[in-house]
Design goal:
71% of the residues lie in helices and 3% in strands. It has helices spanning 23-34, 62-65, 72-81, 92-95, 98-109, 135-139, 157-170, 174-187, 189-214, 221-248, 252-268, 276-295, 299-319, 324-343, 347-363, 365-368, 372-391, 395-415, 420-439, 443-463, 468-487, 491-511, 516-535, 539-559, 564-583, 587-607, 612-628, 632-647, 656-668, 672-685, 690-698, 707-720, and strands spanning 14-17, 46-47, 50-51, 59-61, 86-90, 116-120, 149-150. The chain has a 5-stranded parallel beta sheet, with helices on both faces. A two-stranded antiparallel sheet has the order 2-3. Strand 2 and strand 3 form a beta hairpin. Helix 12 (276-295) packs antiparallel against helix 13, helix 23 packs antiparallel against helix 24 and helix 25 (564-583) runs parallel beside helix 27. The longest helix has 28 residues, at 221-248.
Length: 724
C-alpha cells in the first residue's frame, strides 16, 4: 500500500467508510483498531506516518459519529480532512453506495489518495455482479493498488487482515508487526496458563454452588440459575477465546486440561429441570470439545464427548420432530462418532452410527423441504457410508450411497454455486463414482469421473489461491487421474499429472514444513512417479524419487507407528525400491527389501483383508518376492498366495489391477489356460499398464492395442478437455 512521505497532525487516526449493510464489519473494525495496543518496541519510532503512538485513537466511524449532524455533507468533509487515513470496507454493497463513492472522491481530492486502505469483506474484485471496489477506487485520480486486507474465506482471516491494516496505518512492515505480535502473545502465555487454571477452579466452585442452590428453597431458585449461567459463561470462555489462544501458541496440554475440566463440569450438571436453550448450549460446547480431541488424535476421548453431546441432542430432537435444525445437529454428532470409530479402524461401529444418522435425517424429510443443511448432512452420511462399505469389500452395496451423494451434492451446488464446500463435495462424489468404475473394470468411465473431479478442484483452487487445503485436494485428484491414465497406457500424460501433483505437494511442504499431511503427499506421489519413470526406462531418476519417498515415509511411520495409512505408504515405497533394485540386477537385495515391505503389510492386511490398496500392495510385494527368489518352490508359493488374495475378495473382482496381478501369477506358474480369460478381460477393458505390458513381452505374448477402447477414450478426452 502506498504511503505519503510525511503525515501532518490529524484529529482522527482513520476514517472508516462503509455501507449500512456492512455495519457489523465496521463495528468490529472500529473496536479492533481502537482497542489495539501497539507493541512497545514500536512505540515512539518515527515512520512516514509520524511518531508511532501507543494506541490508534480516535477512529472516525462516519455513520455513528454523524447520526445527529444537521449538515451531513460539511461534517463528512471536515472529518475526512482531519483523518490521517481512509479505510474503505469493500463489498458489493459498498461498491454501489453513493456515500462511499463520495467519501473516497473527497479524500482523493484532499490529496491523500496514498493513504487509502481497503478491507475486503465480500464480493470479488473485477468480477461483474460481484465487484467490491467503489468506482473511485478503481478509476479515480489515485486508483488503489491490488493489495488489500481480505477477511473472506480462504484469504487473510480476521487476525491477519487487521494486522495488515495496522501495518499500513503505522507504516511498518506486516512481517515485522506480525513478529512483534507473536512475541507479545508468547510473553502472555504464562498469564493465559494461570488464567486457564483459575477459570477451571472458579468454574468448578460455581458449579457446586449452582447444583446445591438448585435444591434449596424456591426463593433461591433465581440465584441458582444466575450462578449456573455464570459458570456456563466461564466454560464458554474456556472453550472459546481461551482455547483459541492456546491453540495459536500450540499449548495442547493446557487445552486438554481445559477440555477435561469442562467435560467433568457438564457431567456434574443435571439434564432435567433445565431449559432447552441450556441443553443446546451444552451440546455445542461438548461438540467443540470432541472436535478438539479428535484433532489431537485422542479418538477414544473424542467419542466420549461426541456421545455425551449426542444424547442431549437426541432428547432435544425427539421433543420436536418437525424442528429440522435439531435433527441435523443430532445426525451430525452421530456422523462425528462414526468418523472417529472409522479412524480407529472400527468399520462396523462406524457404519452403525452412519446408518443411525441417516435414519434421523430421513425421518425429518417431510419437514425439510430441501433445506440445504439437511441436504448437506444427508450427503455427508451417504459419502461416509459408501467409504465404509467399500473398505469392508461390499462394493456393490457402496454404489447406492455413492450415487445418492453425487445427486445430493449436485442439488446443493444448483442451490448455491458459490459455496466452495458444496462444490468440493460434488468433486469428491465424482471421484467416488470413478473409483467404483475402476473396481468394475470400466477404465474409460473411471477416467471420465476423475477428470470431472480434477476440473472442479482445479477451478476451486484458482478461485481460492490462498486456501492450502484446496490446493491439497487438487494435487490429490491430479495424482489419481495421472495413475488411472497410465493404467490405460497414457504414460506420458500420467507422468505429467503425477509430476504436477508432486510439485504442488513440495511447494506446500516448503510453505508448511511441519505439516505431515503434505509430506505424505510428496512421499506417495514420488513413489508413483518413480514407478512410471522406471517402467519407461528412466531408472536413475526413478531411484532418486524413490529414495526421497522412502526417507519421508519411514520418518513419518516411525513418528506415528499406529497410523495404518502411513505404514502402507512406507510399504508401497519399499515395494518400488525393491522393483528398482531388481531391475538393476541385484536380486538378493531386492528380495530383502520386499520382505521388509511384506512384514509391514501383513498385520495391516489381517485387520482389513478387503481394503483394495492394501490387497494390491501385498500382491506386489509377493510378486517381487517370487521374481527375486532363488528357490523355485518359494517362488511358486508366493505366486499361489497372490492368486488366493485375488480370489478371496468379496467384490470388485473385475478391477483390472487385481486381474492383472492374478494373471501375471498364473502365467508365471504355467497356468496358461486359466490365465487366458483374464488376459482377454484385461484387453477388453483397455488395460495397458506398463508393468503388465513388460511382463507380457517377457512371456512373448501378443497383446495388441484395443482400437475401440482408444477411440472411446479419445472422444471422452475431447469432451472433457481435462487440465494438465
Amino acid at each position: 500500500m502506498r504511503q505519503s512521505p510525511a503525515t501532518p497532525a490529524f484529529r482522527y487516526r482513520a476514517f472508516i467508510s462503509y455501507s449500512h449493510r456492512d455495519a457489523s464489519w465496521a463495528g468490529w473494525l472500529h473496536r479492533s483498531l481502537e482497542t489495539y495496543r501497539v507493541p512497545s518496541r514500536l512505540v515512539g519510532v518515527r515512520t512516514a506516518a509520524g511518531i508511532t503512538p501507543r494506541r490508534l485513537t480516535p477512529i472516525f466511524r462516519d455513520r455513528e459519529e454523524l447520526a445527529s449532524a444537521n449538515d451531513l455533507g460539511s461534517k463528512v468533509r471536515e472529518a475526512l480532512a482531519q483523518s490521517a487515513n481512509l479505510i474503505v470496507i469493500c463489498s458489493p454493497a459498498s461498491a454501489a453506495s453513493r456515500w462511499v463513492q463520495q467519501e473516497v472522491l473527497a479524500y482523493q481530492q484532499l490529496g491523500h489518495g496514498g493513504r487509502i486502505f481497503c478491507l475486503i469483506v465480500d464480493g470479488e474484485p473485477g468480477v461483474e455482479g460481484q465487484e467490491c471496489f467503489a468506482p473511485a477506487l478503481r478509476s479515480g485520480a489515485t486508483p488503489i493498488e491490488p493489495i488489500a486486507a481480505d477477511v473472506r474465506a480462504g484469504k487473510d482471516g480476521r487476525r491477519n487482515a487487521k494486522l495488515k491494516l495496522l501495518a499500513g496505518l503505522l507504516d511498518v512492515s506486516f512481517d515485522s508487526l506480525k513478529r512483534r505480535e507473536l512475541q507479545r502473545r508468547n510473553r502472555r502465555l504464562t498469564l493465559i496458563t494461570a488464567a486457564a487454571l483459575l477459570v477451571a477452579m472458579v468454574t468448578g466452585a460455581l458449579a457446586i454452588v449452582a447444583t446445591k442452590a438448585r435444591h434449596a428453597a424456591e426463593l433461591a431458585r433465581a440465584d441458582a440459575e444466575r450462578r449456573q449461567h455464570q459458570a456456563e459463561d466461564l466454560v464458554d470462555f474456556m472453550l472459546g477465546d481461551l482455547s483459541d489462544k492456546l491453540h495459536q501458541v500450540e499449548r495442547l496440554d493446557i487445552m486438554e486440561d481445559v477440555d477435561d475440566r469442562a467435560m467433568k463440569y457438564f457431567a456434574s450438571m443435571p439434564t432435567n429441570d433445565v431449559t432447552d436453550q441450556v441443553l443446546a448450549h451444552r451440546v455445542k460446547a461438548m461438540e467443540k470439545i470432541g472436535a478438539v480431541q479428535r484433532e489431537q488424535g485422542h479418538l477414544a476421548e473424542a467419542i466420549v464427548s461426541f456421545e455425551a453431546a449426542a444424547r442431549l441432542a437426541a432428547s432435544l430432537a425427539e421433543k420436536a420432530p418437525a424442528d429440522v435444525p435439531r435433527q441435523v445437529q443430532w445426525a451430525r454428532l452421530l456422523s462425528f462418532i462414526g468418523q472417529s470409530h472409522w479412524f480407529e479402524g472400527e468399520l462396523e461401529k462406524a457404519k452403525i452410527n452412519f446408518d443411525a444418522g441417516k435414519h434421523v435425517l430421513e425421518r425429518a424429510a417431510p419437514y425439510a423441504h430441501d433445506d440445504p443443511d439437511w441436504l448437506f448432512g444427508l450427503e455427508m452420511l451417504d459419502n461416509n457410508l459408501g467409504h465404509v462399505l467399500e473398505a469392508q469389500g461390499h462394493l456393490d452395496d457402496a454404489a447406492a450411497p455413492y450415487a445418492s451423494a453425487l445427486a445430493l451434492s449436485g442439488k446443493l451446488v444448483a442451490i448455491d454455486p458459490s459455496r466452495a464446500e458444496w462444490t468440493s463435495e460434488l468433486g469428491g462424489a465424482h471421484n467416488n463414482i470413478g473409483k467404483l468404475a475402476l473396481l468394475r473394470g470400466d477404465l474409460a468411465r473411471a477416467i471420465e469421473e476423475y477428470a470431472a473431479d480434477d476440473a472442479i478442484e482445479t477451478a476451486l483452487a484458482a478461485k481460492h489461491p490462498d486456501d492450502i487445503n484446496q490446493r491439497d485436494a487438487m494435487l490429490g485428484v491430479r495424482a489419481i487421474l495421472g495413475r488411472t491414465l497410465a493404467l490405460a497406457g497414457a504414460d506420458d500424460d500420467g507422468m505429467h499429472h503425477l509430476q504436477q501433483s508432486v510439485d504442488m505437494a513440495e511447494h506446500l511442504v516448503a510453505d508448511n514444513p511441519d505439516n505431515d499431511g503434505f509430506q505424505e503427499d510428496v512421499s506417495r506421489g514420488a513413489t508413483q512417479l518413480a514407478r512410471l519413470k522406471r517402467l519407461n526406462g528412466d531408472l536413475a531418476s526413478a531411484k532418486e524419487w524413490t529414495a526421497k519417498s522412502v526417507a519421508i515415509a519411514t520418518k513419518l511411520a516411525q513418528e506415528s507407528p499406529t497410523d495404518a495409512l502411513l505404514q502402507r505408504f512406507r510399504a508401497e515405497a519399499l515395494n518400488e525400491q525393491a522393483a528398482e533394485t531388481l531391475a538393476s540386477g541385484h536380486a538378493d537385495e531386492a528380495h530383502a527389501q520386499a520382505l521388509v515391505a511384506m512384514d509391514v503389510l501383513k498385520p495391516l492386511l489381517a485387520k482389513q483383508p478387503h481394503e483394495r490398496s492394501l490387497v494390491l500392495d501385498s500382491m506386489d510385494a509377493q510378486l517381487l518376492l517370487a521374481a527375486s527368489s532363488a528357490n523355485q518352490a518359494d517362488a511358486e508359493s508366493w505366486r499361489a498366495n497372490v492368486i488366493a488374495l485375488a480370489r478371496g475378495q468379496l467384490g470388485g473382482g473385475n478391477d483390472p489391477r487385481l486381474v492383472a496381478r492374478e494373471a501375471q501369477a498364473r502365467l508365471a506358474l504355467g497356468h496358461d489356460v486359466a490365465a487366458q480369460p483374464l488376459v482377454q478381460q484385461l484387453w477388453s477393458s483397455g488395460y495397458r499398464d506398463a508393468e503388465w505390458l513388460a511382463f507380457l513381452r517377457r512371456q512373448h505374448m501378443a497383446y495388441p492395442v484395443n482400437a475401440d477402447f482408444q477411440k472411446r477414450l479419445l472422444a471422452q478426452n475431447n469432451r472433457n478437455d481435462t487440465p494438465g
